[in-house]
Design goal:
By secondary structure, the chain is an alpha/beta fold. The chain has seven helices and seven strands. Strand 2, helix 5 and strand 3 form a beta-alpha-beta unit.
Length: about 200
């Protein structure tokens, strides 16, 4: 069973300077390309490392639906969101493979450092597909198995090629993207528009 971050480490590590170097939020947001006013579902938001800059990117006319499986993470995130006055961030507790959201509610979905923790990534991708509007896109960023200086156990990491197969099987296609640091790979997929 994959380990979950909160099982073994303090939440403050999610905001550590080294993480900011290896996983620059600006680099993630550039690849996500969420327009102002759009709705983004961030799966596995943790304590908001990406959530807060994402909320600024979509602006007050947009919505960030930040989900996590951990009550403690959501409590930390709630405090941060309230302190910043970000009323357009909605916090939702999800099950690992199910998002308690209506179908077709989001323009974008974002999973950062989540894939390696999932027991059944295919099931989660199927639900993300449901939650996205036709033409909506998903961005997945996760640890590269070849990076040895930090990160989760190597046997739990997926290669970008394996993740791309999962996205394709879920109906997204999969476009490999260059990421800002070699510790991570990135993939984007799109839910096809209905004909």
């Amino acid at each position: 069973m994959p380990h979950k971050f909160g099982d073994h480490a303090p939440w403050s590590r999610l905001m550590h300077e080294e993480r900011q170097r290896m996983l620059p939020a600006a680099g993630v947001l550039e690849l996500l390309a969420a327009a102002p006013g759009s709705t983004v579902v961030e799966v596995g938001a943790g304590i908001g490392y990406i959530t807060l800059p994402l909320a600024l990117a979509v602006g007050p006319a947009g919505t960030v639906i930040a989900t996590d499986v951990a009550d403690e993470a959501l409590a930390h995130l709630k405090a941060r969101v309230e302190a910043e006055g970000l009323g357009h961030v909605r916090l939702v507790k999800n099950e690992e493979s199910r998002l308690p959201l209506d179908s077709g509610v989001a323009d974008r979905a974002l999973l950062v450092d989540v894939f390696h923790e999932l027991e059944d990534p295919a099931a989660l991708l199927a639900d993300v597909h449901r939650v996205l509007r036709p033409g909506g896109s998903i961005l997945v960023v996760d640890w590269d198995p070849g990076w040895t200086d930090a990160g989760p156990p190597h046997h739990e990491r997926l290669t970008r090629a394996a993740a791309q197969e999962l996205l394709e099987a879920a109906g997204f296609g999969g476009e490999p993207l260059a990421f800002a640091h070699p510790s991570h790979w990135a993939l984007r997929g799109t839910r096809p528009r209905q004909r």
